[in-house]
Amino acid sequence: xxxxxxxxxxxxxxxxxxxxxxxxxxxxxxxxxxxxxxxxxxxxxxxxxxxxxxxxxxxxxxxxxxxxxxxxxxxxxxxxxxxxxxxxxxxxxxxxxxxxxxxxxxxxxxxxxxxxxxxxxxxxxxxxxxxxxxxxxxxxxxxxxxxxxxxxxxx
Length: 155
What we know:
This protein is α+β, with helices and mostly antiparallel strands. It contains three helices and seven strands, in the order ββββαβββαα. The protein has helices at 48-60, 122-135, 141-147, and strands at residues 10-19, 22-28, 35-36, 39-41, 65-73, 84-92, 103-109. Strands 1, 2, 3, 4, 5, 6 and 7 form a seven-stranded mixed beta sheet that branches.
């Protein structure tokens, strides 16, 4: 407890948005700057699913359909700003993404050939996503625990 209040993580939701065989990435307009999966903090009274859909719309202009939950990412080091737990969904959409809100731009990429480094733990998340797409296997809880001993940038 800090100053009589419990210290708890913030909650976020991210969406790996599929359009055909490509996915949407955003370029963040705010710190930390860089490439990321669309997503953001949950609002009070909002579910993780509602937040993922809202954030996708705000940052890409796309209406998405959530298809599956890839996982819950809770490494305390995953966000340099503060302790954040994120529920990461796989979603589908159609159309062309356009950057908005916290995204200076949104664009389609081949998930097998990313254009550059990603912020937060998003490289690790996309590594898990590709394994899930290939083999139908999500990261196991023990694997998530084992990652706590490795640098956050390493998948």
